[in-house]
Amino acid sequence: MLNTLTFIVFLLLALPGHSCPHAEHSISYSDVLEITRSNNDRRVTRQISAPAKTAITNVRVFNGEKLLPLSTVFIEGGVIVHYASEAIVVDGNGGVLLSGLIDAHSHPLSVEHLENFASYGVTTAMAMSCFPYDICDSLQNHPGLTDIRFAALGATAPNSTHALLGTGVPLNETITSPSQAADFVARQLEAGATIIKMTAEDVGSPTLSQETMNAIVVAAHARNVRVACHAADYSAVDSALTAQVDQSHHVPKDFPLNSSLISRFLAQKTVSVPTLSIFLQFDIGGRPDGAHGFAVATASARALNAAKVPILAGTDANAIPSPFALAFGSSLHTELELLVQAGLSTVEALRSATVLAARHNLLFDRGVVAPGIRADLLLISGDPIANISATRDIQRVWIGGVEYTAVAGR
């Protein structure tokens, strides 16, 4: 099997300000071939039945705002329908049926990671940096497993912290001028990206110029594509907002967002993906007065929510060896719990991983439980509005109408 250590530099492309702990591990072309071949082989060999006509009875549907009375939800042809005759009946036992969860910021590399996502009801995940492109492609189109959408390679400046991680970003993939923005965006879209990512580096690192960041957003918007920006300190968020990005990923680890910046989130309709899970995992950053990075990040998330800035649930889940790893799938449930601790209501937390995550990533075929929508569904036993941790009490998962079943030995 592939030694996951060889891919640490790619996983670290989005970690908020963390230095690479395994920079000595190089990335070889043979490694790329091995993981790509393994992913593609699994697509062929994993036996998946066609989506069955299914009637999920005796369930309370979360409609994005509240729990509805007990009812039946029908699946046919991989989508939710009003009614399906001769359907297989699944008794929901009075549980709650949610739209499949969406992780708005993650770094999967293998089919095993898709299995982990699926087993926890995470039916869609945004891979917020993915390179080489063959690996991105090898994570696509695995029926019955989590659907991956990706940002391909994030825009970085030469000699910046993120460009120099490990073996570094290829020089011809770094951005030095606003004139390169349109070509950069075009390359990512040709590779299959559904969102463009760029990196506003922390203080002390070379970073994209403001003019270049502005040009990347203009070029992406001209192609009707949204832009996410890694911004993990106060000045980086300022630069991201000046560029009018659609999504700001992470929150500052040095100083909490103030009302001035938050008002710009609102005015520009920029959404936040705080990734509190990764701040908790690393407890990085912090202020000279001793406040830890997680506390600073939580304060920003609390202020954003209080101001009604839309928040999406993202984790930065990755496969860096312990103690740096953040588990795929289970970490999204942790993120929901942390968001509630930061002041979101349980309904707001659920929306952050369903309807809002779908809407702000232009995934209009999912995110709600309604006829005509893709049958990505999570059946749980408890009441997540009463207790957000109930999302962990999983009965069953459907992805594109196919009930997820773990492979033997997992």
TrEMBL record:
One annotated GO molecular function: hydrolase activity, acting on carbon-nitrogen (but not peptide) bonds
Residues in the signal sequence: 1-19
SUPFAM superfamilies associated with the record: Composite domain of metallo-dependent hydrolases, Metallo-dependent hydrolases
Database matches in Pfam families: Amidohydro_1 (PF01979)
Keywords: Signal
Keyword Aminoacyl-tRNA synthetase appears in the UniProt entry: no
Residues of the Amidohydrolase-related domain: 97-401
Keyword Signal included in the entry's annotation: yes
Domain of life, source organism: Eukaryota
InterPro entries the UniProt entry points to: Amidohydro-rel, Metal-dep_hydrolase_composite, Metal_Hydrolase, Metallo-dep_Hydrolase
Protein name listed in UniProt: Amidohydrolase-related domain-containing protein
Species for this entry: Mycena albidolilacea
